[in-house]
Write a sequence for this structure.
């Protein structure tokens, strides 16, 4: 049957090039392997020439596949499932890249693309290591290419085809039996990009993160090649700059994910120990371990065996994280949305074909890997670098063990539940790790390799220690740290960890001048350590002093509120704002004044929140956005937070509830009525009685009364037509001659009561009555003190790592 309106050429070209990627990477791998195995110069040159041609062919094929997918997306060729499922007519062009790598096929292609770039650099610069290292990298390309094949070998399907047609994907659906199905309404528009991914972070975060993922193959390849060719020492020098590069890029990618979560997800912060976050961070931690032991080996000959292990494990953990995030096994434990792709067997094989050979090779070669018999001195730098690396590695194991609970359950048929309070389970261990790591970062650079004299050490470390103690004392003494959620012991641990982080910053900044005499070209490690210390300070301060400021001062409790992980929200920590009425929130008055649609290609609605503050005087507007998610089972509010940024804090706000937008528009305003105690006031659905006027709050919560303030509260009973009774307590606060009003709302009757004046005879009560559903938004808001220390620290740490890469590359 000929189907009218289909554009088949792009798909056929793309799929042909996908198969070509698979074949070319196989040829490249075999050729590089043969070049490694032969000692005959002419044969080696011939095999290398064939290998390079095959790898360049692979690169061209990858670029054509990528270009073809972009062509299909930009031309809205909805006969292809990829275009229909990930784009739409209304999608903004700036999210084209996000649509490309939203799917697993796009993510694997992105990974493959970066492997191509890394392979080009290695072929140009790897020298004698080119053949064995490129053998490993080409094998990785071969495995990744298999993920986008979408063909069958006997009864087994290999990969998923990004160029599959809708009629092939929905095989058997009646509409696709019609040769004119392309003219149907369903095929005129796509499902569209997941609204939560319509964010600029989705455009820039995945490329950086996947470059970090891809780059871990290079240290792995050098380590595996060294074990394979029995060149146990020479590999460290060329591998170390790559390891530093990988740590810089992967670290940047992880922290970009944290910034994305902070700005776009309702975690209530930048890190929630979500399994997907953990799976990307653990390989970075292990890479950092490998960098430190590699540096120790270069200077002393110690720690070579464990350096092999760390660099091998870092990439293997990347593969394990790929299995976790692409298998659907984390579906019930992560706020990220993952489904079973039907490729679990292939993902397991992808992991196994690297884990098994690498493990066997390491075990077989372990005894012949050179090692220094003499133990390190306790006052030697390399000893404490090893201790710090080992501690960081144990912390990584702890994180990945908890993250892997769904895997244990799947393997052994158990039903072990993840920790109820996940934050505490992780943080109670990590805070102790921070204490030790912070001190080691501060002290270790002041030690010499092999041995250090005590007088020299104390002379160098003394002043930074005194300065750090003084600064820590001031910070802890005047910082008002009172985080007692988990008891005094946990608070003390935070105190000590913060002091250790300060020590790390001060001591490493001091070492640039004391130890390096201001030579910034050699200061990459110290700069990176300063950045890491600032990150730790930002994490500890912002999380321990984080405060919910959205106390429910309106008195309106919305039932059924849940957080990002589906857990019930505390109604007292969610403030419902009735449109046109301002309420107290912390030091601010905030009013919901309106909302607007994002535009013809923006499905989000933006909600205008107007903030004012008397002292210091401040007036600003922020626009959190939200919408009802149209995608299947993911229905509900999808909210993007908004933040007001200060030098020393952020105010972080997101929406937790919206009214039913299908109701009629509310255009009513407040009408004032003069009442005395005992008076009755009628409204459309009943009447209300002013019972009494009370000097004080009369039990009304959410009113911040200071010494010298006066509060007047109206005790009102609302008698509805259906005989239901409701209590309302609008109030007025008098502070230094200024009036602040606290309205109250009877949601069931669509009433808002506002106390607008009082005299000896009675009061003036403003009543707003709506015949439609009350227009409101419910928000949750936090203050994050000194969160900018975290972002500044990230930039400084990455700068230090890049400085180290540049210095080592220039030194050859």
């Amino acid at each position: 049957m000929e189907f009218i309106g289909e554009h088949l050429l792009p798909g056929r070209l793309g799929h042909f090039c996908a198969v070509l990627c698979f074949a070319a990477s196989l040829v490249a791998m075999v050729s590089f392997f043969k070049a490694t195995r032969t000692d005959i110069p002419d044969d080696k040159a011939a095999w290398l020439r064939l290998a390079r041609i095959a790898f360049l062919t692979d690169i061209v094929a990858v670029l054509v596949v990528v270009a073809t997918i972009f062509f299909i997306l930009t031309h809205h060729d909805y006969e292809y499932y990829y275009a229909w499922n990930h784009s739409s007519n209304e999608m903004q062009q700036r999210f084209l890249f996000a649509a490309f790598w939203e799917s697993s096929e796009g993510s694997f292609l992105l990974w493959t693309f970066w492997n191509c770039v890394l392979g080009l650099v290695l072929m140009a610069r790897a020298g004698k290591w080119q053949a064995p290292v490129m053998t490993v990298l080409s094998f990785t390309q071969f495995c990744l290419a298999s993920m986008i094949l979408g063909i069958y070998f006997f009864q087994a399907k290999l990969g998923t085809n990004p160029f599959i047609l809708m009629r092939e994907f929905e095989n058997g659906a009646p509409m696709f039996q019609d040769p004119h199905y392309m003219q149907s309404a369903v095929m005129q528009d796509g499902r569209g990009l997941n609204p939560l991914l319509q964010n600029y972070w989705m455009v820039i975060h995945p490329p950086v993160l996947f470059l970090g993922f891809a780059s871990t193959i290079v240290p792995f390849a050098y380590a595996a090649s060294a074990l394979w060719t029995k060149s146990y020492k020479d590999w460290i020098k060329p591998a170390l700059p790559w390891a530093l590069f990988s740590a810089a890029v992967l670290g940047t990618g992880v922290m970009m994910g944290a910034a994305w979560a902070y700005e776009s997800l309702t975690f209530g912060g930048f890190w929630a120990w979500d399994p997907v976050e953990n799976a990307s961070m653990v390989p970075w931690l292990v890479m950092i371990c490998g960098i430190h032991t590699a540096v120790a080996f270069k200077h002393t000959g110690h720690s070579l065996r464990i350096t092999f292990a760390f660099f091998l494990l870092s990439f293997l953990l990347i593969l394990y994280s790929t299995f976790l995030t692409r298998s659907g096994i984390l579906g019930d434990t992560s706020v990220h949305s993952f489904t079973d792709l039907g490729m679990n067997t292939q993902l397991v094989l992808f992991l196994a074909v690297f884990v098994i050979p690498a493990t066997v090779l390491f075990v077989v070669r372990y005894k012949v890997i050179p090692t220094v018999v003499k133990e390190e001195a306790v006052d030697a730098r390399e000893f404490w670098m090893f201790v710090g690396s080992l501690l960081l590695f144990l912390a990584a194991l702890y994180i990945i063990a908890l993250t892997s609970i769904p895997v244990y359950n799947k393997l052994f048929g158990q039903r072990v539940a993840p920790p109820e309070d996940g934050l505490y389970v992780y943080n109670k261990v990590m805070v102790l790790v921070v204490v030790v790591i912070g001190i080691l970062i501060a002290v270790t650079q002041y030690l010499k390799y092999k041995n250090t004299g005590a007088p020299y050490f104390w002379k160098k470390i003394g002043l930074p220690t005194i300065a750090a103690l003084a600064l820590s004392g001031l910070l802890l003494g005047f910082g008002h740290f009172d985080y007692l959620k988990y008891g005094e012991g946990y608070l003390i641990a935070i105190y000590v960890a913060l002091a250790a982080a300060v020590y790390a910053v001060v001591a490493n900044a001091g070492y640039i001048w004391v130890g390096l005499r201001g030579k910034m070209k050699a200061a990459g490690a110290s700069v990176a350590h300063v950045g890491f210390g600032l990150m730790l300070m930002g994490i500890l301060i912002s999380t321990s002093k984080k405060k919910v400021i959205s106390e429910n001062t309106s008195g309106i409790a919305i039932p059924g509120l849940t957080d990002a992980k589906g857990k019930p929200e505390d109604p007292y920590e969610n403030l419902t704002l009735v449109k046109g009425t301002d309420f107290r929130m912390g030091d601010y008055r905030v009013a919901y004044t309106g909302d607007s649609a994002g535009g013809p290609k923006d499905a989000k609605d933006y909600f205008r929140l107007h903030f004012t503050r008397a002292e210091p005087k401040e007036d600003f507007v922020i626009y959190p956005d939200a919408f009802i998610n149209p995608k299947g089972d993911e229905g509900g509010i999808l909210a993007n937070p908004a933040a007001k940024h200060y030098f020393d804090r952020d105010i972080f706000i997101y929406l937790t509830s919206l009214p039913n937008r299908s109701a009629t528009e509310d255009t009513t305003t407040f009408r004032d009525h003069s009442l005395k105690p005992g008076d009755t006031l009628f409204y459309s659905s009943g009447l209300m009685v002013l019972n009494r006027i009370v000097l004080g709050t009369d039990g009304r919560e959410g009113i911040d009364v200071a010494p010298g303030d006066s509060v007047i509260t109206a005790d009102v009973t609302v008698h509805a037509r259906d005989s239901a009774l409701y209590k309302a307590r609008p109030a007025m606060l008098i502070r230094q001659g200024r009036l602040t009003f606290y309205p109250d709302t009877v949601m069931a009757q669509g009433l808002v009561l506002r106390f607008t004046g009082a005299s000896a005879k009675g009061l003036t009560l403003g009543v707003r009555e709506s015949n439609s559903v009350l227009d409101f938004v419910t928000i949750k808001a936090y203050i994050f003190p000194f969160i900018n220390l975290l972002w500044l620290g990230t930039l400084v740490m990455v700068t230090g790592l890049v400085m180290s890469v540049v210095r080592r590359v220039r030194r050859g």
Q: What stands out?
A: The CA atoms of residues 262 and 270 lie 4 Å apart.
